[in-house]
Every structure is written in C-alpha cells, then in structure tokens.
Fold CHRD domain-containing protein.
Amino acid sequence: MKSFAVASTIVAISALAVANPTPDWGYGWKGDKKPYLWSPFEFTSTFHVVATPEQVFNNTVPATYTPGEPGAVGYFNYGINSYLDTICYNITLLGVTGDYRSGARTATHIHQAKRGLTGPPRIAFPNPGPVSDDKKVIRRSVGCLTGPFTTGVLANGVDTGVGFKVAQIEADPASFFTDSHTVKYVPGVVRGQLA
C-alpha cells in the first residue's frame, strides 16, 4: 500500500510538471527526434563578435563609412536557443566614453543588415554600465531576453522587433550586426558583423 501511494505521488508530480512547465524551459526535439526539455542555457548557436569603430556606417542612402570612437572595442557574446526564442548576452565595452543615445528603448542592439549597410534594430539589449567619461572604465551587460521582442523604433507604425525570431539570426548571421550608440558617436561607437 505504501509503495502505491509513493508511485501515485510521483506520477501526479510528473503530470503537474508536464502540464505546467516553468516559463524559462520548453520542449523541443533534439538529434534523434526524442522529446527534449530545453533550458535557456542550452544554445542552438553561439556568436562571439569583436566590434570596432572601423566597422561603423551611418544611416544615409547609400550608407557611408562613419568611424566610431577611436580606440574603443566591444566584445559581444551571444548564445541563442531558437526553440525557446531566447538570446543570452554577455557584452563588454572598453574605451567607450560618454552617455548612450538612440531612438530605440536602449542604445545597444542587433540590427538586420549586411556588412557595410545599415538596417533596423531587431533586438534591444540593456546598455552596458557604468556610464563614464573615463576610457579605463569597463562597461558590462549580462542576461537573457526571450521573444516577443520590441525595440521602440517604428517602421510604418510597427515596432522593428515585432515578429522577429532569433532563428532568423541562425539562418543568415551575415545579415546581422551588433553595435552600441553614444551621444558622441550616434551612428555607432563600435560595430561588428555576426558573420
């Protein structure tokens, strides 16, 4: 009788877990097509981008080279879980001075555009901090974001993040770049292509 009660409790807890998975976890298929419980820290792809001032272009048509802050560098590390539409980020900016500036919710983004072109932001990340005028201050931002994404930038009345999925980055990383914008370098303090 005791073993039946324990077995019933385990089955009930298992059913509850399946019926109500936590929001940070999801189900998908892995490799041999067996069901798999995905965590946001299991990535379907990763990107390590070194962003420099020499890669910055402005929004004119056609886009023209507009260098960012001399001596600045950005290390943008992304882990994508396309099953959960989640992107985790670890962003470090070095040699960047002044406050941030952007028409978006934040001034640190992934934009959709090929090398040498400009395009709309698709994901807005928390700006690395602390803000300082001292070039020796290291700015960092670490965390995860899960869709639906919004940027605060409108194109034809629709936010440029609406409908965007991180799987689009995996499908064509060369069509995306990452950057950060400051008051002194509005087109971009640094920029780097994802591929």
Q: What stands out?
A: The two ends are 61 Å apart (CA to CA). The first strand starts at residue 26 and ends at 30. The chain has two domains: 2-38, 45-193.
